[in-house]
Amino acid sequence: MTHRERIRGIIPAMVTPLHPDGRSVNEASLRRLVEHLIAGGVHGLFATGSQGEFYALTDDERLRVWQVTLDQVAGRLPVYVGTGAVCTQDAVRLARLAERVGADAISVITPYFIAPSQAELYEHYRAIAEAVSLPVLLYTNPGRTGVNLSVDTVARLAEIPNIAGIKDSSGDMALMGEYIRCCPPGFAVLAGRDTLIYGALCYGAVGAIAATANVAPALVCRIYECFLAGDLAGAAEAQRRLAPLRQAFGLGSFPVVIKEALDMMGFEAGPARLPISPLNAAQRIELRRVLEGLHLLPEG
To answer: By residue range, what is the domain housing residue 162?
Structure first.
């Protein structure tokens, strides 16, 4: 994948399936998840992002998730991997590791816990981009990190040849519109809020990195495919149908809801790593109701 080629469409932010004790990656379930997503028509896969619990994985576990995902995909789709870290040195090391194992692109969340200035964020991303030849996706999620990327900073970073786009999980459509307006043609802006995919496409985004696409890949892809075909009513209707699944995220602490939904569907995603707890009985009843409404549960 060249630096600004094929970054488009619906890219699920994959969960990392764990064994029931939460101590190790369930590689067989990960392979099944990859096949489920490809069968749903997705345009790429994103491993070890926020939904993939990157913050709770060791470096060896993160590497193994990449290796298994790349092996199972076998070149059918681009594989994006999350290589974010608090400090630049670690982010560079992980980026180089991703390049060595054959990832098609990397996604790098802003540092978290600390609060770098925009000048420091620019140097952070510049150093990562210069360390690899892979396409680099910026990733801003200020609600979780407390750190945002300004329009000016993103526009400057977009001038670096292999900084290819941004996943914007801010939920601020005005900010996303400015990213699109102020960055050069070919710079890929991807929605990171599943409730805003249709609106983002209308603004000029090229797709979305979507956690709900783990559970309902075909429905999320329908938003994008209908939009491309000029069926705006169909795209808006698919977005409307998806909304209860995204709203169900509030039933538990992030990122347990999508894992429990996959368990209900028979995919053995396993628990989230502690301290995140499983849903309680009442929460599970509500989640099951949402999945039944989308006809996602196995018959019988």
So the answer is: 9-232
CATH of the domain at 64: 3.20.20.70
What confidence tens digit (pLDDT) does each residue in 49-96 have? Answer: 999 999 999 999 999 999 999 999 999 999 999 999 999 999 999 999
- In this prediction the pTM is 0.95
Residue 275 inside a domain? The answer is no
- Domain annotation covers residue 257: no
* pLDDT, tens digit (0-9, with 9 covering 90-100), for 119-166: 999 999 999 999 999 999 999 999 889 999 999 999 999 999 999 999
210-223-158 Cα angle (round to 5): 55
Domain count of the chain?
Answer: 1
Q: Catalytic positions, please? A: 139, 167
Confirm if 46 and 13 have CB atoms less than 8 A apart: yes
| Strand-pair category, 45-47 with 207-210 | unpaired
End-to-end CA distance of the chain: 43
Q: How far apart are CA 94 and CA 127, in angstroms?
A: 12
Q: Give the Å distances, CA to CA, from 218 to 56, 82, 284.
A: 29, 23, 23
3 in a structural domain: no
Q: Phi first, then psi: what are they for 164, rounded to 5°? A: -100, -15
Q: Is the peptide bond before 275 cis (omega within 30 degrees of 0)?
A: yes
Tokens of 156: 């400057």
